[in-house]
Amino acid sequence: MSLVDILNSYTDEYWDFKTSKNEGIHKIANYPAAMVAPMQRELLQLLVNENKNYRSMLDPFHGSGVTLVEGQEVGLEVFGIDINPYAHIISLAKLEKYDPQLVESANTNILSNIAELKENGGWEPHTFDNISKWFRKDIIEDLSVLRTAIKREQNATIRRYYWLCFGEIVKKYSNTRTSTFKLHIKEQEKIDGMENNVIKDFETKIKETYGLIGYPALGDFHLECGDSNSIMKQMKNEIFDIICTSPPYGDNGTTVTYGQFSTLQLLWIDENDFDYDISCIENYSRLDSLSLGGTLSKNNAFYYPAILSEYVAKLSPHKRKKILQFYADYENSFREMVRLLKLDGRMVLTVGNRKVDGIEFPFSEINKELAEHYGMKVEYVLMRNIINKRMPQKVSKLSDGKPVESMSKEIILLLKKEG
Ligand SMILES: C[S@@+](CC[C@H](N)C(=O)[O-])C[C@H]1O[C@@H](n2cnc3c(N)ncnc32)[C@H](O)[C@@H]1O
Fold it and tell me: Which neighbouring-strand residues pair with 360?
């Protein structure tokens, strides 16, 4: 049976994965809009079953690394890029290999170090601009104890796993609300009423996480933290068999503020244990401004689909500018993805059509037009209801006060590069 025949044999509801949750390794950290792991696994498995020569996969917007882990599970060598250092830290923790004996003795060691620092002092107080707005004084002290203890660990791989655990504790005990991905201070009453279990929770977190990482411990992986367009531009032509990704559906500021969601954790984590440019968090909005469609982007598009021109003509000038800026960045990414894909290679794009000015942004149709323009065959289109993905309902407000609505469906485009 051909791939298309196999896909035709599934029911429409199948792809909703109604009862599936992201289990196991995917639970180690929180990140917005994580992909549904069993769905990614199934799609990738179908591709590698159909073409036994597929060996490598790129996800140029990997987020929390769901697709990278599932790619490894089906035997692919995986390559990932994301501009957000927190996405990089999470994905690295999922993909790195750990020596169980070393981790177990390091865990015993760090817990006694923490107890010793807590009792006798000697920890380095950590600070950054506005720290006391986002963290209570006793929480800053306990987080500083943990930070000092992590820095004392000798093994860099183990330290990176601790930073991931620490990042989750930082987020939990910050004064920001959990109801939004944006940094938004909690009511004073809630801040004052928060029970401080920082040290105990870190202990639980490292134990739980250790039970999940190191699995699947499969093939090679390569991760880079930075702008996909710049990184992809430095890669050779036709090097990947599969490109499987869920790109941003719009600029971060008005869709999902991945940057704001991550900045507090990054202000605490020691950047020296990772390879990223710390200037991306020099203020709370910089990471979002550097991301696709952000105010700091400078790309021009080579090709404008008719459907995009029709769409932007209906928008207010402010939103028109934002959409065109996002489109220009995305078109550059699309072109690069096509260039990096081998002949007969497959691209799997999970996209959503959000509403801007109350009008649906036809991102899936734009992708189809881009595919045709750049020599990719649209082999199959799947539509699924978003059931288990953490997405904001009303995502954000622009300066005119009107919300940009989020979406409840996503579209999966299966594209093939033909000669
Ligand atoms: C939809 S999420 C990806 C979801 C992901 N597939 C998962 O499993 O969690 C989009 C990602 O694109 C990243 N991103 C936005 N602009 C970028 C850029 N210019 N270069 C690299 N990554 C970027 C964001 O940081 C975010 O993590």
Answer: 355
Ligand 1 atom closest to the CA of 31, numbered from 1: 9
Is the C-beta atom of 32 inside 6 A of ligand 1? no
pLDDT of 390 reads: 52
The ligand 1 atom at the shortest distance from the C-alpha of residue 292 is 16
State whether the beta carbon of 248 lies less than 6 angstroms from ligand 1. yes
For the chain, give every domain's residue range. Answer: 3-85+215-251+291-417, 100-212
Q: pTM, whole model, 2 decimals?
A: 0.93
Closest listed residue to residue 172, CA positions, set 64, 286, 264, 273: 264
How far away, in angstroms, is 82 Cα from ligand 1 center?
6
In this prediction, residue 407 carries a pLDDT of 64
Q: Is 333 in the pocket of ligand 1 (CB under 6 A)?
A: no
- Residue 35 identity: M
Ligand 1 centroid to residue 178 C-alpha, Å? 20
CA-nearest residue, atom 3 of ligand 1: 63
Ligand 1 binding pocket includes 291 (Cβ within 6 Å): yes
Tokens representing residue 356 in the block: 């801007």
Query: In the predicted model, is pLDDT for residue 63 greater than 70?
Result: yes
Q: Give the β-pairing of 394-397 and 403-405.
A: antiparallel
Which is the closest atom of ligand 1 to the Cα of 64?
9
Q: pLDDT at residue 276 above 90?
A: yes
Partners of 222 in the β-ladder? 79
The model's pLDDT over 98-156, given as tens digits with 9 standing for 90+, comes to 988 999 999 999 999 999 999 999 999 999 999 999 999 999 999 999 999 999 999 99
Whole-number average pLDDT of the chain:
92
Which atom of ligand 1 is closest in space to residue 35's alpha carbon? Answer: 8
Q: What is the pLDDT of residues 355-411, one digit of tens each?
A: 988 999 999 999 999 999 999 999 999 998 876 555 543 334 444 444 444 568 899
Q: Which residue, by CA, sits nearest to atom 25 of ligand 1?
A: 84
Which residues have a Cβ under 8 Å from the Cβ of 98 and sit 6 or more positions away? Answer: 157, 158, 161, 210, 213, 214
CA distance 150 to 134: 22
Helices (H), 34-125: 37-50, 66-73, 85-95, 100-120
Q: Does the beta carbon of 224 lie inside 6 Å of ligand 1?
A: no
Rg (C-alpha) for the chain, rounded Å, is 22
Q: Report yes or no: 164 and 270 within 8 Å, Cβ to Cβ.
A: no
Beta bridge partners of 397: 403
Range 3-85+215-251+291-417 has CATH code 3.40.50.150: yes
